[in-house]
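Weekly modeling sync, notes
Attendees: S.R. (lead), two postdocs, one rotation student

Agenda item 3: backlog of single-chain predictions. S.R. asked that every request posted to the team notebook include the full sequence so nobody has to chase files. The rotation student volunteered to paste the first one in as an example of the format we agreed on. Action items at the bottom.

Example entry:
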Amino acid sequence: MRLLPILLLLVVAVVLLLPLLSRIRLSAPRARRTLPDELVKDPVCQTYVVKSRAVRRTDAGQVRYFCSEQCARLDTGA
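Predicted structure, as returned to the notebook:
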C-alpha cells in the first residue's frame, strides 16, 4: 500500500517536469551547423582543392586559390 502513493507522486513529478525540461532544451542555443567545405579550382593546374586547405593569394583585391605553393609560384596572374 505504501508503494501506491510513491508511484503516484513519481508519475505526477514526471508529468510536471517533462514540459519544463522540453522548454529548457528548446530555449538553449543550438550549436551552429557548419556547411561542408567547398571546392575551388586551381588556375594553374586546373585541379580542385578544398578551400580551407588551399594556398591563398590576393591580387588586386581578388583572392585566388592554389593546390600548392608550387602552383602559386607558377601563376602568371592572367
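Discussion: group reviewed the output briefly. Helices lie at 3-27, 69-74.
Action items: rotation student to repeat for the remaining queue; S.R. to check formatting next week.
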